[in-house]
Write a structure and sequence with these properties.
It is built from three helices and eight strands. The protein has helices at 14-17, 32-39, 146-166; strands at 5-6, 20-28, 53-56, 67-73, 76-88, 93-103, 108-119, 124-134.
């Protein structure tokens, strides 16, 4: 069993104040409901080359308190806890956020992801925010910071656009 390093807790404001952040802001050619269903299904992100696997470890229905396990690369696993989950079908607005509880590589203090899906003139808008803080005195974790991370997040964006473009458009 791989060693696990505990991460610090945080709230939604961390996505605005994190020392390191990445943002994907794209339109997808599907309804907000279809995008949300894809982003919150078991084994989601299977279309992303940079992600080895995502598995919800809590039973549906998902909401605040849901847990998930992500395999991000060789020897890199992240345990996630969803502390925010908002579904407003009448407004076609959906949001969730998780914070990492533990990771199998040293060097991170905090890591999280906020996903928001809303209506757009055509299809929907996906805003995906990633926030992290390195542990004090830690060497940068290549997967989470610097040029390697920027490349990984660009690949996630490209793969997501490609995946949603293959789905049947909905009105």
């Amino acid at each position: 069993m791989a060693r696990s390093y505990a991460l610090d807790s945080f709230d939604l404001d961390f996505f605005d104040t994190a020392p390191v952040s990445y943002r994907i802001d794209v339109n997808l050619p599907v309804t907000p409901e279809r995008a949300w269903a894809e982003l919150t299904r078991q084994h989601t992100l299977d279309w992303c080359r940079a992600i080895r696997g995502i598995e919800f470890t809590s039973p549906p229905p998902y909401g605040v308190g849901t847990t998930r396990q992500a395999k991000l690369g060789p020897g890199v696993a992240l345990s996630e806890y969803f502390f925010d989950w908002l579904e407003e079908p009448a407004e076609h607005h959906y949001r969730n956020a998780f914070r990492g509880e533990s990771v199998t590589v040293p060097g991170l203090s905090r890591f999280g992801e906020l996903t928001e899906v809303s209506s757009a003139d055509v299809g929907c808008r996906l805003v995906w925010r990633f926030a992290l803080e390195l542990a004090t005195g830690a060497k940068p974790v290549r997967l989470f910071s610097g040029p390697t991370a920027a490349s990984v997040f660009k690949t996630v964006e490209t793969d997501t656009l490609r995946h949603f473009s293959t789905l049947r458009p909905q009105t």
